[in-house]
Amino acid sequence: MKVVLLHDDLPATAREDELDVFVQADAIGEALAALGHTANRLPFSLNLHGVTESLQRLKPDVAFNLVEAVAGQGRLVFLAPALLDGMKLPYTGAGTEAMFATSSKLLTKRLLHAAGIPTPPWVTMAGPIAADAPAGRYIIKLVWEEASIGLEDDAIVEVRDSAALRDQMLQRAERLGGEVFAEAYIPGREFNLSVLAGPEDPTVLPPAEIHFVGYADDRPRIVGYRAKWDSASFEYHHTPHSFDFPPPDAPLLAELCRLTRACWDLFGLRGYARVDFRVDETGQPWVLEINANPCLSPDAGFGAAAEHAGLSFPDVVARILGDAHCDMGATTACQELAQ
């Protein structure tokens, strides 16, 4: 099978989190070769006509979609599956609607809330979800960006009223250069649950808990940008994942798996995904985010969860490839791929 690896078109000044897409492409290319497929790489840019011509020239059977941002903007990530839908070219991962919905943290939260899936209360620049934002601790996040961009200890603020919170949001929006919202900060435990498509039903991979080793008692427990990408930082080396849990955690883990599958079904996810949770001091899980295209570097959290489930990296790639899909009105190529 001929596979094209679609990835971000990066500038020379790309950040560490952006450059990671090349690590993913290297690993996936090797796995595809081991599975007997051939692969070419193609950067995806705002030159949609040029990308279309390149795809027509390459004539792939399927596109492996690794695009995480277009022209450096996470809010444009849906353009890749949208273009592939328009071409009736099968591709891996989430479809256009799911990619758009999950790339906006606000839209994600609104859909979760409407479906009765617990997500922390939030406040937007246009006004809170309730009549007024109560005093308390909030974490201010960018609406559209992934990779924990702009997320560090100073993203957590304690305010006395909604006016003070709005001031904090305005300051942070100006500093980060993007749209922000504030989410009630949930102290407690943090979990990632990854999902991988299967021959019949998706598999929720073993839950992972992030531990905050050596953190001072008064320091917030958050997985910020440094924890994910700055290998020279304290945070990077003191936030390990653990897949080992005591027996009393069994009901909580079962509930996390149930909610993860509910998120998969609600958003119509495909191929692979990750759901991030906080669990408060009463044991209540809260969905923080849904990542429809989590990092597939072999040493990342998704790969670790798959390995813990007994799956090799080529196994993961094969299952994602096997769940490739295309828009309604499938062409012959789409129908053959599905068989």
Explain the overall architecture.
The chain is an alpha+beta fold and 339 residues long. It has three domains: 2-92 and 324-338, Rossmann fold, CATH 3.40.50.20; 121-184; 187-319, ATP-grasp fold, B domain (D-amino Acid Aminotransferase, Chain A, domain 1). The chain has twelve helices and 14 strands. Strands 9, 10, 11, 12, 13 and 14 form a six-stranded antiparallel sheet that branches. A five-stranded antiparallel sheet has the order 5-4-8-6-7, with helices on both faces. Helix 1 packs across helix 11. Mean pLDDT is 90; it is low at 329-335.
Brief synopsis:
With 339 residues, the chain is α+β, with helices and mostly antiparallel strands. The protein is 37% helix and 20% strand. The longest helix is centred in the N-terminal third of the chain and has 19 residues, at 16-34.
Secondary-structure blueprint:
Layout lengths: L1 E7 L7 H19 L3 E7 L3 H11 L3 E4 L13 H9 L8 H8 L1 H10 L7 E3 L2 E2 L7 E7 L13 E4 L2 H15 L3 E5 L4 E8 L6 E2 L3 E3 L14 H5 L4 H4 L3 E2 L7 H18 L4 E8 L5 E7 L9 H8 L4 H10 L9 H7 L1
Parallel strand pairs: 1-2, 1-3
Antiparallel strand pairs: 4-5, 4-8, 6-7, 6-8, 9-10, 9-11, 9-13, 11-12, 13-14
Helix pairs in contact: 1-11
